[in-house]
Amino acid sequence: MIPTHLRQQLEQRVAQAITPREAAVDVMKELQRHYGWLTDEAVAEAAALLGLSPLQVEELATFYEMIYRRPVGRTVIHVCDSISCWAMGGETLLRHLEHLLGIEAGGTTADDAFTLLPCSCLGNCGTGPSLMIGDRLFGPVSPEQAAAIVADHREAG
To answer: Is 8 helix (H, G, I), strand (E, B) or coil?
Structure first.
């Protein structure tokens, strides 16, 4: 169950939206931030806040790659696998990160520090290959730079 102050904050956001569906991503991201991922409980809470059915929230949640319907590590690394990034070495970058982290794409490190997720496009086609951690976009990223970025985030904890 979400704290009262978060519920009130989300109710205000929904009330300010033109339609409840307009606030859906915002509500799901806040609940994800609270729980660490969008749990079944969070889907039900989002549905209640938005006046939608849980199935409608589920449909929205599974459409967006930045909404996680399963547990993820403390840091999620999205690696762009669009054609632009692929052409600039995105696949090599993803393989390097898999090796560096000791996991396959889609996996989470044993210490729950990192989850590595390929995604369809980060909108950074001019500076591929790209990756994103949180809201921060990196590109172009060489394998050596990727190692430094991971090390920085590992130290930050």
So the answer is: helix
pLDDT, position 156: 78
Mean pLDDT in runs of 10 for the chain (157 residues)? 94 93 95 95 97 96 93 96 93 96 97 95 93 93 94 83
Helical segments of the chain, H only: 4-16, 24-35, 40-50, 54-63, 83-87, 90-101, 143-156
Q: Is the peptide bond before 71 cis (omega within 30 degrees of 0)?
A: no
Q: What is the DSSP string of 115-152?
A: EEEEES--S-GGG-S-EEETTEEE-S--HHHHHHHHHH
User: Which tokens is 142 given?
Assistant: 């060489």
What phi and psi values does residue 96 have, to the nearest 5 degrees?
A: -65, -45
